[in-house]
Every structure is written in C-alpha cells, then in structure tokens.
Design brief:
By secondary structure, the protein is of the alpha/beta class. Helix content is 56%, strand content 11%. The protein is built from 10 helices and 7 strands. Strands 3, 4, 5, 6 and 7 form a 5-stranded mixed β-sheet that branches. A two-stranded antiparallel sheet has the order 1-2. It is flat and about 60 Å long. It starts with 14 loop residues before the first strand and ends with a helix.
C-alpha cells in the first residue's frame, strides 16, 4: 500500500528531535496509504499485466545462477537453445554475454561447503574419492554453525585472534582450495552456456565479456545478455508492449525518472 501507482516507493519523511528521541512525521505516508486503498484496486489488472511483461523481458535478458550451480537447469537450457536457434536462423545476428559474479557470496558458500565436507570425511574416516552424492546431500543439510564442527575447527588455530567463522574455516581448509573451486565453477558455467551454440555452430557469434564482480540486486550471479544486431521476436514484442504500457496513465507520470535510470 505504500507503493505509488507507477510501482514506485518514494517518500521524504521529515525527522525532528534528536538521536535519543527522534520524531518521524509520517503524514505523507499515511495519506498515500489511505489514497491507495481506494486507487489501487481498480488498477490491479494493469499492474499485473506490467509485472508479466517485465518478467518476460527479464527472462530474455538474463540467466540467473543459484549458489554453486555448475550447469544450466532444464528450463534454462531450453531458453539458451532458443537463442542458439535464433542465431542459426538469422546469420546476421549475434549476442554479447556479460557475466556478473557475486564472487564474495559464491566463495563464502564454497568455503562453508568444503569446511563441512572435510569435517564430514574426517569424522566418518572416509577418503575424498569415496564421497558420494548421498554424502554431498548430507553435508549440504549440515549447519556450518554446528557446535561440534565449530569446536573442531577452532582447535590449534595458527592465529589466536581469529574470531569470525569465515576466518576459522579458511584456516581449516585454506584459500587455495576455495579459489580453485570458484574458478572451476565459473569455467563450468561458461561451458554449459556455450554448449548449445557449439552444437549448432553459432558459437563464433557469441561474445563472452570478461566477468565482473558485483553485488547483484537479488543476491545471485547471472549472465546479462545483449542483442546488438537485433533481438528475438518474442523480446521485441515484449518491449513494444512495455512501451504501450509505459504511455498509459499509471506509469506515464514516471517517464522522466525511468529515462534517468537508462
């Protein structure tokens, strides 16, 4: 109810008083909430239509990777195969792929998994080559904050001022293993994405840009796709439809704001 009609939240909330006793003046927010109770219901069909088109465009421009996901999921593979078919049918077309890696979070995930894995192997007196898929699932379910695990990796620390769990885990398994696993993850993702293009001979028109380390808005690494020589028909239709929706009342008021973000 605090969203404006253009699906935007934008308020200036005056604050008076001091840090010990701040007073927030919420008149503007309260007024808009009351107004939206009456205004929003009639515009619900429009907002749902916008959401559907936005999702369709986003799916055509990105491939999202879950944590430690090495290969495309079935629905993602189907999507990439559609793009490869588009390139096959349009010899003048090409795509540019810009990987956005949430390296900090990905490496932390690998760090915790490898710590639990090493602890699991030691406790069960197993060798790495005997680590099965069932074992992997069991390790995934294990909490990295398990009391016995934390106590074990805290023994004989080389640096007695290691306080964080991450520091203790790095001391336990080493940074080199984490970096090697991360490099393999990136390599596997690139190969999985390029495979459909290699199969139909269009890989020469797929340009992979050097990956960029960032903090994505939704917390997941992803591939950003650009179509410099023309986009697939489905994407073009979605963009045309969005232009029509942007010119309608609820979003037209925010035309200037959208242009600033482009």
């Amino acid at each position: 109810f605090v969203r404006e009609r253009g699906n935007v939240i934008d308020y200036e909330i005056p604050i008076s008083g001091n840090l010990k006793n701040p007073k927030f003046h919420l008149h503007d927010v309260v007024t808009d909430v009351i107004k939206n109770i009456f205004v929003k219901p009639p515009t619900t069909p429009y907002r749902e239509k916008v959401k559907i088109i936005e999702t369709e465009i986003e799916k055509s421009l990105t491939v999202k990777w879950e944590m430690n996901q090495h290969s495309l999921l079935p629905h993602q593979e189907k999507f990439v195969q559609k793009i490869s078919t588009f390139l096959k049918d349009n010899p003048e077309a090409s795509i540019t792929v810009h990987p956005i890696e949430y390296a900090l979070k990905e490496k932390e995930y690998i760090l915790f998994f490898e710590t639990k894995k090493k602890y699991f192997l030691l406790m069960n007196k197993k060798d790495g080559k005997d680590f099965s898929e069932k074992d992997s699932l069991e390790v995934s379910k294990m909490s990295v904050k398990d009391h016995a695990l934390v106590k074990y990796i805290g023994k004989n620390l080389s640096d007695t001022v290691m306080f964080t769990l991450q520091e203790k885990c790095i001391n336990f398994i080493g940074n080199k293993l984490v970096n090697n696993r991360f490099d393999k993850l990136i390599h596997d993702r690139n190969n999985s994405f390029l495979n459909p293009f290699i199969k139909n001979g269009t890989n020469e028109r797929v340009k992979m840009i050097a990956s960029e380390n960032s903090i994505p808005y939704d917390g997941f690494s992803y591939f950003k796709l650009n179509y410099p020589d023309g986009a697939p028909e489905e994407l073009r239709k979605a963009h045309d439809k969005m232009k029509e929706l942007n010119n309608e009342g609820p979003r037209k008021n925010y035309l200037k704001e959208r242009k600033k973000l482009q």
